[in-house]
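User:
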Amino acid sequence: MSVAIKPLCPSIKHKIFSVVPTQGFSTFEKLQTLKLEDCELLNLLPEDLTQLQDLRHLVINRCYLIAEMPPKIGKLSHLRTLSSFTVGSKALNKPGYGLAELHGLKLGGKLHIRGLENVPSELDAKQANLISKKDLNRLYLSWGDSANSQGSNVNAEQILEALEPPSTLKSFGMKGYKGIRLPSWMRNTSVLKNLVEVILYGCVNCEELPPLGKLALLKSLYVYGMGVKYIDVESYSSVEEKAFPSLEKFKAVCLPNLERMLRDEGVEMLPRLSELFIFGVSNLKLPRLPSLKHLEAFHIVEEASFMEGFVRNMPCLKTLQIYSFKKLKVLPDQLSSLGALQKLKIAFCDELEYVPEHVLRGLTSLRTLEISYCTKLKSLSEGMGHLACLEHFYISNCPELVALPNNMNQLTSLREVSIDDCSVLPEGLQDWLGDMTSLRELYILHCSELRSLPSNMNQLTTLKEVSIVSSVLPEGLQDWLGDITSLRELYICECSELRSVPSSIQRLTNLGKLTIEDCPELEKRCKRETGEDWQYIAHIPQLELKISLPEEEERTFTFCGRIRSSSWSRNFVNTGIQVNTSGEEFDRMVDGWMIE
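Assistant: Predicted structure:
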């Protein structure tokens, strides 16, 4: 028998959540599996949970407010899975709440121990008896930031020493460790030999890392918030020995002192690294990365030397994302040598003014170009016309961009264009848009100067979707709209001066969906049965006329998920470029497990 408790509706899980009764579980005396997932406001488990003597699997995922476990959970002698165990403050002075409850349990799979700041001594930690649990393959240890924490740095070191796991672990993570030194078992490769994933998060006092480069199976590594200069300080005496031989994904976040991957120079390393994410790592000198395909770089101070280094060392790079390079004024010449690059995203580069023609000319494989929140960007140069493989072009929140290059009509592979919040831009829109015969999707959002669309748009015989939001259009859409017979979806929002649709829209026999939102006059004319323009749109299978809402009410546009530049850039602003310091990111990684 099993019971799974989840929010009643996943899409509104922050408002409606499951409540576990504080008593009454004893009626499920034959229960073997209990799953608690996404109950984000749940803070208490029933005390009579320990009466479920047949319980074998207690899975607790994404229930982050649970403050402590029910007393004497160690009585569940048949328990084989306990994915999360929280040491509450009662463990400091009451029996039945501490790590001793884990002593006799033959646990396997995943175990995340939270609240280690509440463990009073090394002896209490040793009672967990983790080393005997040979079926464990995922272990995560978390210290909280409670002001009432009783543990000193020395105490944290002793407690971690006592929590030695079996050598069967494939994934290990640690958050908020207050110690300066690592325990002996974390420096022993025989204990760590089977690790595939390591997450070290917010261990701000710690001055060393495990011998990560020596771990032959390690595929994923995430290091956040530490003061280390090197990721690995081990010696590599053999010429044939490679460091990080299997590592494929590496995230380095808020490591201000990091200089190199290895203390030893001249060692071959990272032959398989394919994904690299760096944030707030200003001094890192990157080695040659022959297999790197995806690079995300945030908030790099010395961007000139950084850019020169990665171009020289990453010949196979396919995706490059650059965020918050505050001094970057012009894309560097070195970018032009990235002939394999397929996707380039640039955002929050406040000083970026220009994208040189020769840089774009060299990006012969580029399929996606996305530029957002570059407030001084004035020109993209005629190099745009040389991006023969370009399929997706998104530009957002670049208020100084006065025009797009006229030769964009040479982009015969371009399928999608999205222009968002570029108030001056439409000056150059007229010259090439109607010639984009390969175009399938067009999104024009918050372009306040847009007063008309080019008349030759009727030549866009492959266009399937058009969205126009918050733009000043004339009283009626042009008659040529009826010539775009390939059109399947049309979305019009916040175009207050738009008052009618052309009768030619009747010819759009493939148009399956028309959405009109926050266009008061147009909504009246298109009202079902009675509106003056109803006769022109009655044939459309899916019609959505959305009444305007008061400004103070929160609204969600139905199309937002479809418009990449808008959704991505606005998301980026909302979350900021600041890294989460509360540990929620650690919890998400732990619950999702980065490597399967």
